[in-house]
């Protein structure tokens, strides 16, 4: 039987910590094992066909081919297209390929950038793959970074053709097939070829590297943009950019030769002296493989006659290959954004001696519990996930200079759909608060009152419906709180928070489930238990058997018809719920409750009932999920956001509320495990066992 989803999440988290999902040991995309499938095909001498991305119309997708063209498509292996196919011919280059009938210029521009860095290219494209008979079975694989983890993606080599010609990306050398196979693998990740239609280079650059990404708005470029691009080139970064969308349709060729709403690769930067004046030039490449800028410093520009013969010989090449030079000022004028991506963050400030610390956190906004919206929604903003950052001291150049930026924070939202074109990005952002002295010893989530009296020192403005948003900032030593959020409340999504700091830092989640140190939660809310033990035992005897014990059915009558009569809104406790209570409270292990065990349960039930109604501030007779954390804290326990979300998922109703019956069942179970943890010497390890056990129970009960 397949493990429950929650169980799989626990196992996946363990594997990540043990080195799985790295570029050298990636996760198997869709659970397809390259080595096993290859061995199977070679032994049986069969050609692989991928049933997870079949060679048919579903893999092409909608709206990129006319119905008549779609009916003419034939899926052919390379050996059926040419007589002598090769994976790579004479190395890899940006000039190897040109764009086809799908609008994935953003992907191809990123592939063009990828060809400059051999070590990164070989991480994505394993070069040992071949069409040689001894090792060929029609199976290929590629690696991509996807939202915090590397995945190994398997494809067959059947490619879509019309009249024997590739209809999507195609190589200039008809015998070379790495570009077409790489595009097909990425199409599989996206869901289909049509799912790659339209995008930004940033997406593919990050998916090729898993590295540090920075986006620069060229409409308001920073004063150090040239230095930043120069450092990026020297640090072997990948760079991509895009032209403005304009008012007409995309892919319109403008009079200056540029394509509107189109992605380009930045292939170089160069500083030259022209007529005694220093000029900064940017070299760009069009993934169409043709079509170039025709303004200043283009291939035919007379300005090349104003530089030295050596510079002219080194830089200028007159050819319609899609690559050209342009002035830095023109680059900022005609392009909207620049994306820089690198395995290492040194390009951010040019200090290779600096040590950057990196922290990754996977989180989730859940409607009703941890999706509080932006600061416009002050009543719920505090419920968002929170992360504490302690900066001990500055490192490298930041310790020597004033104002040097020392932290990059990136927030990336994860898709909830298999097909990329169906994903609707939420508007996301984050706020960074400095923690004042009176809150530095605060445990768990900071309350609403903190955010009413403290303003963020850094904030993303505006919130954007992008896959990733980021801010590069300077934070002095101290304690800080980072709060990622969607713009509106009650919007459910998963996210990846990345914190890079050129400082000695300590980061942990602030929801109450972290292990950086353990302290007891606040004292439980004082409640009245009502009645003495003799009265409880008298009632107990009216329902008990001759051995003065009650089973689950008898306990059900006691609770529903006597102890909680009039307070229950969902039909009372079920027999199964009462069996669970008996199992939790039956210390004598008889399968029933004696009078002492029953009295102990009664006291707990009355306590939980009183806490339930005290924290039901909406007076609905149910707990909203946003009130659940307060109720748990009132009992004297703290839970992490993950645990709170699981509690809501297992015990909450579809309406987003929790009944008294569900609340009591939940707290009885959780308190039993929590008390075991408090008495165990190996606290951190045991808490993980409790958490895993509780999650397993939530998933199967």
UniProtKB/TrEMBL annotation:
Q: Which Pfam families match?
A: Calpain_III, Peptidase_C2
Q: Which SUPFAM superfamilies match?
A: Calpain large subunit, middle domain (domain III), Cysteine proteinases, EF-hand
Q: Where is this region: Disordered?
A: 509-534
* UniProtKB keywords: Calcium, Hydrolase, Metal-binding, Protease, Repeat, Thiol protease
What one GO molecular function would you report for this record? calcium-dependent cysteine-type endopeptidase activity
The annotated regions of Basic and acidic residues compositional bias extend over 509-523
Alphabetical GO biological process terms: proteolysis
Could you name the active-site residues?
105, 262, 286
State if Methyltransferase is listed as a keyword: no
Where is each Calpain catalytic domain found?
A: 47-344
UniProt superkingdom:
Eukaryota
Recorded GO cellular component terms are: cytoplasm
Q: Does the keyword Protein biosynthesis apply?
A: no
> Which family would the database say this protein is a member of?
Belongs to the peptidase C2 family.
From the Swiss-Prot or TrEMBL record, give the protein name.
Calpain-1 catalytic subunit-like
Whichever gene encodes this chain, its name is LOC115413258
């Amino acid at each position: 039987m397949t493990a429950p989803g929650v169980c799989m999440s626990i196992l996946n988290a363990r594997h990540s910590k043990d080195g799985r999902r790295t570029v050298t040991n990636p996760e198997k995309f869709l659970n397809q094992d390259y080595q096993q499938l290859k061995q199977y095909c070679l032994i049986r001498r069969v050609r692989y066909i991928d049933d997870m991305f079949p060679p048919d119309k579903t893999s092409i997708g909608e709206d990129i081919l006319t119905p008549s063209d779609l009916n003419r498509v034939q899926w052919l292996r390379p050996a059926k297209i040419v007589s002598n196919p090769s994976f790579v011919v004479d190395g890899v280059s940006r000039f190897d390929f040109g764009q086809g009938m799908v609008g994935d210029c953003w992907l191809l521009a990123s592939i063009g950038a990828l060809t400059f860095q051999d070590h990164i290219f070989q991480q994505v494209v394993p070069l040992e793959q071949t069409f040689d008979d001894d090792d060929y079975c029609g199976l290929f694989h590629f690696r991509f970074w996807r939202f915090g983890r590397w995945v190994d993606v398997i494809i067959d080599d059947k490619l879509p053709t019309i009249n024997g010609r590739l209809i999507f990306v195609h190589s200039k050398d008809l015998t070379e097939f790495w570009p077409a196979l790489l595009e097909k693998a990425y199409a599989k990740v996206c869901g289909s070829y049509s799912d790659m239609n339209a995008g930004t280079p940033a997406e593919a650059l990050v998916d090729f590297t898993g590295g540090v990404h920075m986006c620069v708005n060229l409409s308001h470029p920073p004063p150090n943009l040239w230095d930043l691009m120069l450092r990026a080139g020297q640090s072997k970064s990948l760079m991509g950019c895009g032209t403005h969308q304009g008012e007409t349709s995309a892919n319109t060729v403008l009079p200056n030769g540029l394509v509107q709403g189109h992605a380009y690769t930045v292939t170089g930067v160069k500083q030259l002296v022209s007529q005694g004046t220093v000029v900064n030039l940017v070299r760009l490449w069009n993934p169409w493989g043709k079509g170039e800028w025709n303004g200043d410093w283009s291939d035919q520009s007379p300005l090349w006659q104003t530089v030295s013969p050596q510079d002219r010989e080194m830089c200028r090449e007159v050819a319609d290959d899609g690559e050209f030079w342009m002035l830095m000022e023109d680059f900022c004028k005609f392009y909207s954004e620049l994306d820089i991506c690198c395995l290492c963050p040194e390009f951010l400030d040019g200090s290779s001696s600096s040590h950057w610390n990196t922290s990754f956190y996977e989180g989730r906004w859940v409607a009703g519990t941890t999706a509080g919206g932006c600061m416009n929604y002050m009543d719920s903003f505090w419920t968002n996930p929170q992360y504490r950052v302690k900066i001990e001291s500055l490192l490298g150049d930041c310790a020597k200079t004033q104002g040097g930026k020392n932290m990059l924070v990136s927030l990336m939202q994860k898709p909830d759909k298999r097909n990329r074109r169906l994903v609707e990005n939420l508007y996301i952002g984050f706020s960074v608060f400095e923690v004042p002295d009176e809150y530095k010893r605060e445990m768990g989530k900071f309350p609403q009152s903190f955010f009413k009296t403290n303003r963020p020192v850094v904030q993303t403005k505006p919130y954007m419906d992008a896959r990733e948003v980021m801010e590069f900032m300077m934070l002095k030593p101290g304690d800080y709180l980072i709060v990622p959020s969607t713009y509106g409340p009650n919007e459910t999504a998963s996210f990846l928070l990345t914190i890079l700091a050129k400082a000695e830092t300590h980061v942990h989640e602030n929801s109450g489930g972290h292990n950086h140190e353990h302290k007891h939660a606040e004292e439980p809310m004082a409640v009245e238990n009502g009645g003495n033990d003799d009265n409880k035992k008298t009632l107990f005897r009216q329902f008990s058997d001759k051995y003065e014990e009650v089973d689950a059915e008898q306990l059900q009558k006691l609770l529903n018809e006597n102890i909680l009569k009039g307070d229950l809104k969902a039909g009372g406790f079920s027999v199964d719920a009462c069996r669970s209570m008996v199992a939790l409270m039956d210390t004598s292990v008889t399968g029933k409750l004696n009078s002492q065990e029953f009295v102990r349960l009664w006291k707990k039930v009355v306590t939980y009932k009183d806490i339930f109604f005290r924290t039901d501030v909406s007076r609905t007779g149910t707990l909203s999920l946003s009130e659940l954390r307060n109720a748990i804290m009132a009992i004297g326990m703290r839970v992490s956001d993950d645990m709170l979300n699981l509690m809501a998922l297992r015990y909450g109703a579809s309406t987003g509320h929790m009944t008294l019956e569900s609340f009591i069942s939940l707290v009885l179970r959780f308190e039993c495990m929590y008390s075991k943890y408090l008495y165990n010497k190996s606290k951190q390890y045991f808490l993980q066992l409790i958490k895993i056990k509780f999650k397993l129970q939530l998933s199967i009960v």
